[in-house]
From TrEMBL:
The keyword 4Fe-4S does not apply. CDD domains: Ferrochelatase_C (cd00419), Ferrochelatase_N (cd03411). Catalyzes the ferrous insertion into protoporphyrin IX. This is Ferrochelatase. Pfam families: Ferrochelatase. Fe(2+) binds at H196, E277. The gene is hemH. Its EC number is 4.98.1.1.
Amino acid sequence: MSRVGVLLLNLGGPDKLEDVGPFLYNLFSDPEIIRLPFRWLQKPLAWFIASRRTKTSQANYKQIGGGSPLRRITEAQGQALKQHLADLGQEVNIYVGMRYWHPYTEEAIAQIAKDHIEHLVILPLYPQFSISTSGSSFRLLEKLWQEQPELQPNDYTLIPSWYKQPSYLQAMAQLIAQELDQCPHPDKAHIFFSAHGVPKSYVEEAGDPYQQEIEECTTLIMQTLNRPNLHTLAYQSRVGPVEWLQPYTEDALKQLGAQGVKDIVVVPISFVSEHIETLQEIDIEYREIAEESGIHNFRRASAPNTHPLFVKALADLVMDALQSPSFKLSQAAQMKKKVKMYPQENWEWGMTTSAEVWNGRIAMLGFIALIIELLTGRGLLHLIGILQ
């Protein structure tokens, strides 16, 4: 019997406060996050940002318990998936590959080769495809296998996006319904979908299908929920002065408050695990904005985590992948006609949508200030004028 493996891909996050500095260094060493005209500047700049911003970032992680729960939850999802597949008669080895912290994708790939896995299913824990989340992880895999072809399994298949999966939609609907039923008037509470944003240029210039998939996913969840509630879709976590997908979450909350909305259920639609963007950004920052806007009953649907229907969704995805023709990395690059899996090699600044939001906001300001000082001799005051 052939050995089957499932590789779960995710961002990663610092497990404890001491990890924040190294995590930031790894994050900003990636040219997918900050693109520079000279590659030799990448690591020195990453060190500069990490060393200057570690304490501030640690303060943000202290607000959610001193570290990211992402690894723990992802590993729990993997164990639940393994058990569910075993119940279906399919034995698998589960591997977790993170982009910026342990267990790294590189570690997972090495272990997969060591275990002599013959058939590998690559499952990104991002329901909707984006060139900056799933696409970024796929690019890393391709690079690793090009450099060390002996690490590539005999056969593999990947799942580029899966936001239409029925059990996933049912899990989301159940999580929303649980919160609606806690409201004074369940049918009148406003459902507020908050997705991680991306720069508008990703969609309009690079052809990223992310916005289309988020919008369609929102519609499918509402159809599955089958309740009369009004709903809104907005985008969180924007960084820097460039335009991101709109409406922005903070603006949409203020607008609903001005319209007299009192009860709201926030749904983190693009996240499948609790982490800093749900526990800190939504639960603390956006809650405060909502309350200041007059929305006094602020509730949030949990991320799917290890919800039984969500685990079933992952298991069904794996079983379907094993029984279908293989889908390769080269096909993912061509999945959408306009999508550029490899961004143009020009000088631009920015960060991937998967970067944990407070690290990104803080470090981005330091980066812009440094570049302005180096190139123009004009410092932070000029930067503030730009951002205003």
